[in-house]
Design brief:
By secondary structure, the protein is an alpha+beta fold. Helix content is 20%, strand content 48%. The chain contains 14 helices and 38 strands. The strands form two sheets. It has a 34-stranded mixed sheet that branches. The chain has a four-stranded mixed sheet with strand order 35-38-36-37. α7 packs across α8. The relative contact order is 0.03.
Length: 950
């Protein structure tokens, strides 16, 4: 039956209307109800979908207002999701969508501390039914989308699994994919851009194939802050990031068809403002790092760096007391390799670098292993590398210049090889501070290096490490060296400069054409305990240290120095075992020392001259074998005008006197031939004067002042020759004891019999000139006394430093009665003169007869109130007068004053004769305090003479 057109039209219209009603209204409403109903049943948080729109004619579907989560903090939400399904999906083998758009979508991804993901907790899903999986059907679901666009989306990410939470958000994520397909061999064009925190931005353009999975394109990351993802790094490395930003752009090719194949090309990387710390201590700061023209091939394990530029890196590193480097301690422990991994090591990465420039680097290095930590600040450091290949046998070029501890400069240029390790470098240093080595010296030698700077221009050639083949040639110098001995903190060695010319180190030999010393100084000290400042410099090492196995056939280290020149050198010798301390020095030392070679017995010439204590010239000339001086030595040394006051400590200790003044001329000539010594020593002391006495237990028990005066000639000089000879190979032979014994014997001969010594000078043989005799009660010199004084004055003229000490003497048994008789005569004339009207001017001119004397004696007896014995009355007058006379004499005989005056008069008489008749200076004759003794057997009284020194 034929359908009428009108009915057909109405039917079609009704069908279309019904289709439209179902598509536009009913199906969206039912779908919206079902979706929201499922949200109510399955959702664990508030969830809703505002609307669903569907165009049944164009197959366009729009979902609006999705909100899952709390009203103020949704977990998943979007404003609009649009999809346009194509009708050809019905007869093609894939779902075909022309457009898919997602606008203003927001997603919050949250990992809790226990690892729970918030998105998996939004819905309660039924248990999935077990399905048999057909492993042969592994192809992805066929879908083709002509255009997929994500517009104005945002992502909030939070991860609490790390010690420090990770939080970041991307507010403007725009993605556009063209021809997205899961079908084989279909390529997708993609364009992704996202704006992240702190201005970060990601731009990704390229092609993507899902089946098989391959991709190529470009990736660009700008202003990415490393702090965004740093907590993940901190989980593996205990490093704190204070700042850091990354810019990266690269072309890439990725294929997962057969393994993972990744090739990066045209890589541009910029790292800026990097600041890393560890345990609140600065670790690394980097201003900028730029890498360009770089590529990487993962399959070939190869990285090619075009140019690398870096500015202002500052890093801190330390070696701890246990020897571990603090940077290495930050790395996680290496996992043990399996036997398979050990048997089949992976191919090493090959790194090629065309050019690298590092500028203004600063390194702060600390070594805490020594007792005193060592601080080394390197920088600014500039480094240039070129043509580096980690697997090539060709060397790469290196250029480095830097400053060490803000003073020393180091420059290195040349070629370095790593396969094998080799080098050909030009090394220049200037002002390198050698005190950095002090903490490493202390465990070995008790020295303190207070200053020293190294300057050098060297060529260093290293051919191989085992066995070591190293050659060093060039010039080197050490400036302003100052070394003190560690225990006493006293100067040991100094110089202004040491210059080594034409230095050549090859294998086991070191040769130096010339060594020049400017203002060198050395100090030799004898300590209080008689040790020296050199005796205990070496620190004893543990005896249980492992012994180093050496070959008996190894040759000794050879040292050869063509010559040494010394300019304005000095040396000090001090002896602190003496009180007061002794010190003297040699200054203005100039000269040359010939060739020194420890592999040759050829003698080296010595020609040096200087001054002792600035003004006394000294010369040292001759030759010696420096490494075996007992084999051959011919040295003549001369000291002129040395001030003897510097020897006061020795004179105080061994002679018991200080030296007030004097000068020493010393000529020493030592010859040694195969251990046999022949020495001629001549000592001339000019104008020696001793000072005050010093208490010393080591002083000789001799009259030292007298000995000096006895040995001095009329010019005030002491001239002594002391020859010495012997076998130095004999352990019993010693030079100084022989010299000292010779001097001591000479002094003994002079001081034990000084008057005989000077009598010989006057030609009087062994005459005793030490005493003179006087008649009782008299101070007059007899002819014998005058002859003795004449001989004595002649001898004293030959020894002008001697003084004569005269000790006036009197004897009461001889001089007392004589002096009393003289006084009686004086008292009688004085009494007689008092009775005259006109007495004479000199009472001694009065003449008294026996009658007058008897009368005056009686009067004097009465004046002195002397006792009168009764038996005297019975004596005749003359006898009674004699008894009274004797009583007066006896009363005056014991008077000490007249005896003392007589002794003083006798001493004065001797001095007067020696001055007036002998021609001696009055100050050379000293009168000692008068003394009282006894008369000789012949009744004469002896006056003693003694010799002394000025």
């Amino acid at each position: 039956m034929r359908i009428k057109p009108r009915i057909l039209l109405i039917s079609l219209t009704s069908a279309v209307a019904l289709y439209a009603l179902l598509g536009f209204l009913l199906l969206p409403a039912i779908a919206l109800h079902v979706v929201n109903k499922q949200f109510e049943q399955r959702a664990t948080v508030p969830a809703r979908l505002d609307s669903i729109k569907f165009n049944p004619f164009t197959l366009e579907l729009t979902l609006s207002g999705l909100h899952i989560g709390e009203p103020e903090q949704p977990q998943v939400a979007f404003d609009r999701l649009y999809a346009n399904l194509q009708i050809d999906s019905l007869w093609t083998s894939a779902v075909h969508l022309r457009d898919v758009e997602l606008e203003q979508a927001s997603t919050r991804v949250h990992f809790a501390e226990d690892g729970t993901l918030n998105l998996t907790e939004l819905f309660t899903l039924p248990e999935p039914e077990e399905q048999v999986v057909d492993e042969s059907d592994s192809d992805p679901f066929p879908v083709r989308i002509d255009r997929l666009a994500l517009i104005g989306n945002s992502l909030q990410f939070q991860d609490l699994r790390t010690a420090e939470p990770v939080e970041f958000g991307y507010d403007a994520v725009d993605i556009e994919l063209t021809n997205l397909s899961t079908l084989p061999d279909d390529n997708t064009l993609m364009q992704i851009s996202a704006s992240g925190p702190y201005g970060a931005r990601i731009d990704w353009e390229g092609q993507l194939s899902i089946s098989p999975l391959t991709s190529s394109g470009t990736l660009e990351i700008n202003d990415a802050q490393l702090s965004t993802f740093w907590p993940y790094v901190h989980e593996q490395l205990p490093l704190n990031l204070n700042s850091g930003a990354l810019n990266l752009s690269s072309a890439y090719q990725l294929s997962l068809v057969e393994g993972t194949e990744l090739v990066l090309s045209d890589v541009q990387l910029q790292l800026s403002d990097l600041d890393l710390a560890a345990k609140n201590q600065p670790l690394l700061r980097l201003s900028s790092l730029e890498v360009s023209d770089t590529s990487m091939d993962l399959a070939r394990r190869e990285v090619r760096l075009g140019t690398l530029h870096s500015q202002e890196l500052e890093a801190w590193a330390a070696r701890q007391q246990d020897g571990q480097i603090d940077w290495l301690a930050l790395l996680p422990p290496a996992e043990p390799t399996t036997e398979q991994q050990a048997a089949e090591p992976e191919q090493p990465w090959r790194i090629l670098l065309s050019q690298a420039q590092l500028r203004d680097y600063r390194l702060h290095l600390t070594d805490r292993q020594p007792n005193k930590p060592v601080e080394l600040n390197i920088g600014p450091l500039n480094l240039d590398l070129s043509e580096f290949d980690s697997q090539s046998e060709s060397p790469f070029q290196l250029r480095l210049d830097t400053v060490l501890n803000e003073g020393g400069e180091l420059a290195v240029t040349g070629a370095v090889g790593i396969n094998p390790i080799s080098a050909d470098l030009q090394v220049e240093t200037e002002g390198i501070d050698l005190t950095l080595a002090q903490p490493y010296i202390e465990p070995l030698v008790r020295l303190e290096l207070r200053s020293g700077q190294l300057d050098s221009t060297l060529r260093v050639q290293l051919e191989q490490l085992e066995p070591l083949q190293l050659a060093v040639t060039g010039q080197a110098g050490v400036q302003q060296l100052h070394v003190v001995d560690g225990p006493a903190k006293r100067d040991l060695l100094k110089w202004q400069s040491l210059q080594l010319d034409d230095l050549d180190y090859q294998g086991n030999n070191l040769s130096i054409n010339k060594a020049s010393l400017q203002q060198p100084y050395v100090r030799f000290i004898i300590n209080r305990d008689m040790s020296t400042n050199f005796s205990d410099l070496m620190v004893p090492q543990p005896t249980d240290a492992p012994e180093t196995v050496t070959s008996d056939s190894s040759e000794p280290f050879g040292i050869s120095i063509g010559g040494i020149s010394i300019n304005n050198g000095s040396a000090n010798f001090a002896d602190f075992s003496l009180t007061p301390n002794f010190a003297t020095g040699i200054e203005q030392l100039n000269g040359n020392i010939g060739t020194l070679d420890n592999q040759s017995n050829k003698a080296a010439a010595v020609d040096l001259n200087g001054k002792v204590d600035r003004y006394a010239p000294v010369t040292i000339k001759g030759s010696l074998t420096p490494f075996d001086p007992l084999n051959s030595l011919h040295i003549a040394t001369s000291f002129k005008n040395v001030e003897l006051t510097t020897l006061t400590p020795y004179s105080g200790k061994f002679a018991g006197y200080r030296i007030r003044k004097g000068r020493l001329n010393l000529d020493l000539h030592y010859q040694i031939d195969r251990g046999q010594l022949k020495a001629d020593n001549r000592m001339l002391l000019e104008d020696l004067q001793l000072g005050e006495r010093v208490d010393s237990p080591d002083a000789v028990d001799l009259p030292v002042r007298l000995a000096v005066a006895l040995l001095k000639d009329t010019k005030g000089n002491i001239d002594i020759e002391l020859p010495v000879a012997g076998d130095l190979n004999s352990p019993e032979f010693s030079v100084m004891p022989i010299v000292w014994q010779t001097l001591r014997n000479l002094v003994l001969r002079a001081t034990q019999a000084p008057f005989k010594f000077i009598a010989g000078l006057a030609g009087a043989g062994d005459a005793d000139l030490s005493q003179l005799g006087f008649a009782a009660g008299s101070a007059e010199l007899d002819p014998q006394a005058r002859q003795t004084l004449a001989t004595l004055s002649s001898a004293l003229q030959e020894r002008p430093q001697l003084i004569l000490e005269v000790e006036g003497n009197s004897a009461a048994n001889a001089d007392g009665p004589a002096l009393a008789g003289q006084r009686l005569e004086y008292e009688m004339r004085q009494l007689a003169a008092s009775k005259m009207r006109r007495p004479p001017e000199n009472p001694a001119e009065i003449e008294l007869d026996d009658k007058d004397q008897a009368k005056l004696i009686r009067e004097l007896h009465e004046q002195r109130a002397l006792p009168v014995a009764e038996q005297w009355q019975e004596l005749p007058r003359e006898e009674r007068d004699q008894v009274m006379r004797q009583a007066l004499i006896d009363s005056w005989s014991d008077s000490p004053l007249p005896l003392r005056r007589l002794a003083q008069q006798r001493a004065s008489t001797i001095k007067d004769w020696l001055v007036d008749e002998g021609g001696l200076e009055a100050e050379r004759i000293h009168l000692l305090d008068a003394s009282e003794g006894a008369a000789d057997g012949d009744g004469r009284v002896t006056t003693q003479l003694q010799l002394g020194s000025r």
